[in-house]
Amino acid sequence: MGHTVLATTTSALRRIVVLFVALFAMAPAMFQPAAAEEPITGLRPLAPQPAAAELTPGLAVRYYFANWDFMWEMERSIRRQDGVQGAPIPVIDTFYEGYNNDVLTADRTQGVGALMSGLIHFDTPGVYHLAMWSNDGVRLEIGGQFIYEDPDKHSNRLSPNIPVEIEEPGWYPVNINYFQKKGTWALDLLWFKPGQTPQGDPPVVPAEAYAHLPGTPHIFVPAPES
User: What is the pLDDT of residue 156?
Assistant: First the structure.
């Protein structure tokens, strides 16, 4: 009986030692930084490129009003509304904490949906790393390519850096769908430009990088294909 217990205990200890050795061998791989994502490609610039005299600063916006929890609810709801044209949005840099702040250029503090459309200017080719703060739901499309979404009601949340390859400089179509249900809200579009190290806090995309043409259509960005 004693020999049986000793053999069982020894076998269990061997298994534990083997497990710790295996985990130790795996540790370097477990704690290495994740491999960088491949950049999103295929973004198409506006053709032909507009002359400076044709452009109006900021993004055009159309507002819709209801309380949504998910982007698909907003999409369904706005089909039954005409919406209200808002003043252009000069820059997506509206990180607000607290209550009773009007949402973007709307005159309401909650229950607001916005379809923002226009152009964003990339002044040099290369890989840009985009990021977004949002509170609540947001969806982003640039140059005809889906870039990012955080489509449900949530508190302030920062996206990961999203690498995007720009093959030629110029103006690119941009569409941003956003909703704010209630309470606090936030919406920021940020980037690291080619040559900048994508670490730390990314700079805000500046106002001079946004414009729109008269009659810019307001587009609801479809959900990404699963």
Answer: 94
* Structural domain contains residue 223: no
One domain for residues 20 and 125: no
Cβ atoms of 131 and 161 closer than 8 Å: yes
- Tell me the CATH number at 158: 2.60.120.1560
Neighbouring-strand partners of residue 164 = 40, 128
Residues of the chain with pLDDT under 50: 1-36
Burial of residue 30 (number of CB atoms within 10 Å: 0-12, 13-18, 19+): exposed
**pLDDT in the model for residue 98:** 64
217 domain-assigned:
no
pLDDT of residue 16: 37
Give the number of domains in the chain. 2
